Fold this sequence. Notes:
Layout: E1 5-10, H1 14-26, E2 29-34, H2 40-49, H3 52-55, E3 61-64, E4 75-78, H4 93-111, E5 116-119, H5 124-135, E6 142-144, H6 147-162, E7 169-170, E8 173-174, E9 182-183, E10 189-190, E11 193-194, H7 201-212, H8 214-222, H9 229-243, E12 248-257, E13 263-274, E14 277-281, H10 288-313
Parallel strand pairs: 1-2, 1-4, 2-3, 4-5, 5-6
Antiparallel strand pairs: 7-10, 8-9, 10-11, 12-13, 13-14
Helix pairs in contact: 1-2, 1-9, 4-5, 5-10, 6-7, 6-9
Amino acid sequence: MGTRKKITVVGAGNVGATTALRLADSDYADIVLVDIVEGLPQGKALDLMESGPVIGFDTHLTGAQTYEETADSDLVIITSGLARRPGMSRDDLVDKNAEIVGSVVREVVKHSPNTTLLVVSNPLDAMTHLAYKISGFPKNRVLGMAGVLDTARFRTFIAMELDVSVEDVQGFVLGGHGDTMVPLPRFTTVAGIPITELLPKERIDAICQRTANGGAEIVNLLKTGSAFYAPGAAVAQMADSLLLDKKRVLPATVYLQGEYGINDLFIGVPVKLGAGGVEQIIQIKLSDEEQAALNRSGSAVRELVDGMFSRLNA
């Protein structure tokens, strides 16, 4: 075997398959797609692999129904679970997906005890907490993908509003993945210029609101599923930083033990991602208003998590 990394993607639906596509294009890791639907991961893996000669990648992709093939993965990305449907809250999903994610984590840990878990299943903060509890992994090896996606939406809407390149827009979003997320305009810039200098407050507020509802906006348009192109891209960016040891500073859902005044909770904050997993939690001083918004987001996440664990233990 060469020095190629090994990535397992659990769930070969839209998010899993799109993530596998982005990672295959990057050409530094071989990929195992796992799904309970017979033939689905094998079919998608083969189809993706057959695009290699055209795109120019040598990524080897394997599909599987069981976890033997995933042994010794460097990174396991968990996308399995039900997607939101119109009118469904993230909370409605919690019990159904807790069952699915719980069983996935038990299997993964058995075959890859030294891997890092990157959780994408919703409700994101609760599922990441569950994966941490069930895996018994150290906190630096369990994280959730939400902030990169939320920030990407925020950056997209700002670029559209100002008619500038998205490349020059850097966004900053904290908190839970959902209606209580906390976009921070004060730290959001266009080529280093805070957007508070470029847009009136009411436009910024409207963009923040649209960002918080970004997932629901797409669910309501699609009617039969939820977003997958931007989520897949966001997952791949995190995977690159972890496995290529890029040490990017990205927002991610991680376990806080006192940082930002929050204890024993998975929630979105800026972190440094590298070969050691979550290598550093970046702390910044928030205004009273920003801290209050983050506390509200934390309370909403905690309520969901406590409810989930009390029902699981009942």
